[in-house]
Amino acid sequence: MGHNGVIADPADMIGYVTEPRDAFHGRALCVVRPGRAEEVAGVLALCNDAGVGVVPQGGNTGLVGGQTPDESGEQIILSLQRLDRIREVDPASDVMTVEAGVILARAQQAAEEAGRYFPLSLAAEGSCTIGGNLAANAGGVHVIAYGTARDLALGLEVALADGRLLSNLSKLRKDNTGYDLTRLFIGSEGTLGVITAATLKLFPLPRSRATALVGLADPQAALALLTLAKARAGAALAAFEVLPRIGVDFVLRHLAARDPLASPHRWYALVELASPAESGTDELLTDLLAESLEQGVAEDAALAATLEQRAGLWRLRETLPEAQKPEGGSIKHDVSVPIESIPAFLAEAEALIQRHFPGARPAPFGHMGDGNIHYNISQPPGADRAAFLARRDEMNELVHGLVRKFGGSVSAEHGVGRLKRDLLRKVKDPVALEVMRAIKQALDPKGVLNPGKLL
Amino acid sequence: MGHNGVIADPADMIGYVTEPRDAFHGRALCVVRPGRAEEVAGVLALCNDAGVGVVPQGGNTGLVGGQTPDESGEQIILSLQRLDRIREVDPASDVMTVEAGVILARAQQAAEEAGRYFPLSLAAEGSCTIGGNLAANAGGVHVIAYGTARDLALGLEVALADGRLLSNLSKLRKDNTGYDLTRLFIGSEGTLGVITAATLKLFPLPRSRATALVGLADPQAALALLTLAKARAGAALAAFEVLPRIGVDFVLRHLAARDPLASPHRWYALVELASPAESGTDELLTDLLAESLEQGVAEDAALAATLEQRAGLWRLRETLPEAQKPEGGSIKHDVSVPIESIPAFLAEAEALIQRHFPGARPAPFGHMGDGNIHYNISQPPGADRAAFLARRDEMNELVHGLVRKFGGSVSAEHGVGRLKRDLLRKVKDPVALEVMRAIKQALDPKGVLNPGKLL
């Protein structure tokens, strides 16, 4: 495994046992950094025999503590960072084969160099890894057009709990020879096996792209605009993000941005169309905006005329979490509901929060096209930050209770990890939980894979 | 369950114990036809207790014997046909909830009546059921744009072997709360549970559509055309089917069709673009064809100018299996290889077959956009039909051996069932088989679900 394969000095382990936000931390026996899939399998075989818990880790960017060991100091961290080869890019088959430790941005770039597009895109793309993206079934801003990480892999190489190596780096679009093990391991958060490599789908490079910020009266109008955009643009609809005025206010106040629209609106949608054709998206978006203005769905719209303007529109949306920080404590939720229910959910949530937390400021934003809202609530202005955050569980219960009422999910894209493991037991269909436990027991009978996570 | 719930008279069972082609048949204790999911679960609980094998059956159109009981007469057939309610169509969320026994064509129609599109489309759509489509992970002609049945469901209701009912009729596009049980049950051919209902994704209705038949020199040209079509049309590429001249000859000879192109070509591609926009696909396809003619990729092309002409082009492709019948015995294979490898695979297969079966006539056709070729071989003209068919195993071994060499699948879309169960043991990664068996054991420890199928 080479001299860099094992880190046992506590000082050198700090970057592995805590995560960048310091929201989760723990202790580890050591960090093992194998360089090949067979070595990963070998480490698992040893740990399985010895009954030592293994915490797989990629770029250490997960938000639910899935990649952090517990406080016992008896688990090891299995870092996949050294498995960083792009094994092959096959543009004619529209597939690339990459190892788990490849940084997402590097995978995107490798695709682009071959004249192809790998559409997974999220805030952490400069440091998160493909293995982590798959283990956590990452989402991001292009799910509406391309699906989540689970939809973007054709096959996997996986080291199993007992050290067997499952090799299914398939380049096939269709293969009906048995159970879909690929999608079972994807999103299992390292509890069923350790992904060491994957074959990923590639797409044609978008050659034209059009982006607009649309001012809207309310979430109902956002839903109407989304429905119209899907009907007119179909698969060319590459992103449909929403944010409320208060979110725009936060960004304008703290981040030296300027309002792209002449007057304020209560809600906004960021709409992007993309197409492999050389042109056409500008015209399509212009027509769509004209129709939505005529129908009274939209109040106003700003179409990006330059790359710089497009980046400016995206910044409004993407810097919202950062702009929320100077506003004091905030309590966050990563939830989804059926798309049709978003307006009702937002209205009921607002009323509920005002009743229990007078003055608290919800700034819900996110991937409306997928039904996924990041329901973040800033503290009342001037209130005590610690006192507000101390009521986090109460707030969580209000929001998650409402999510369940609408048949939604309490973790739309960030996963379960340590953060929501206890919550999962309360909200998930008991039969589904039993089936999940039966599968876990079948594939990891000694429970050495990422103990205490998810289940 | 009502007076029609059980059929025990052998005469009345004939339509259930044999399949329409009579390729597979068996005997059954009885046919049970529950009308509600809870009744399905109740039947399974009883059979699990008694150790009686259960063969789930939908429209009885499967091609690999998955829906037929064995010859023991000790299994029951569990028909899902009476679970035929469309529970809800929710166009704003782009989801419909349908029961397992709903005929595919009826589901398509329900979507269309709500102004939406359900893209699953295959030859048996007038009689196959959604439950069967999901259990078998059906493919069809629009996989290139919309994926297989596995990609088209958001959630399932499943009766488990011991009679528990798993309820996850989710309308969510994103839900990262645990293992992907939905996709595990889809494609498991009734061996892990019995699907009783599903939430299915809906899409915008295509409002413009353009179709062309393109004459090509060889499969390499077909691959170049496919690559160009993906680059220019992206997600608007709704179908890319190929067929060889001999297939066109068969259709022209036996089915009173006419050749849409002025002179014969060695290979053909049927290319269809579709878009929710009111227009644009005709122009896009015209440009694509012009570019492919200029580049020497295509030799000639006929663009359908009317609905009738479009239907005529599709008939050429869809009637090929029927037109092959008067040519004598044929041996069929449902295989896939990486898209890039299709030309090499076809060349090597042709040479191999001529060496071992001089005069035999391969007429490979199908879903080139998915890498899925129906590699069907007609007997040599005038040869003895029975003698040719008697060498089926030998032919299968040649073709499947070559498929494996190219990293392909011996069952791209038809599944495993009874037909390919023994084959699976030989070709599948042994670790993948072990994992599949462990999951089967965990979910159906007494082995009552579709015994003798798949595993």
From TrEMBL, chains A, B:
| Pfam family name, one | FAD_binding_4
Q: Where is the FAD-binding PCMH-type domain?
A: 24-205
* InterPro entries with a match to the protein in the record: FAD-bd_oxidored_4_C (IPR004113), FAD-bd_PCMH (IPR016166), FAD-bd_PCMH-like_sf (IPR036318), FAD-bd_PCMH_sub1 (IPR016167), FAD-bd_PCMH_sub2 (IPR016169), FAD-linked_Oxase-like_C (IPR016164), FAD-oxidored/transferase_4 (IPR051264), Oxid_FAD_bind_N (IPR006094)
Please provide the record's keywords in A-Z order. FAD, Flavoprotein
UniProt key word Flavoprotein: yes
Tell me the cofactors it needs. Answer: FAD
Give the GO biological process terms: respiratory electron transport chain
Q: Which residues form a coiled coil?
A: none
Gene Ontology molecular-function annotations: catalytic activity; FAD binding
| SUPFAM superfamilies membership | FAD-binding/transporter-associated domain-like, FAD-linked oxidases, C-terminal domain
Presence of keyword Disulfide bond:
no
Fetch the PROSITE patterns from UniProt.
FAD_PCMH (PS51387)
The source's superkingdom equals: Bacteria
The UniProt similarity line reads: Belongs to the FAD-binding oxidoreductase/transferase type 4 family.
Q: What is this protein called?
A: Hydroxyacid dehydrogenase
Name its species: Methylosinus trichosporium (strain ATCC 35070 / NCIMB 11131 / UNIQEM 75 / OB3b)
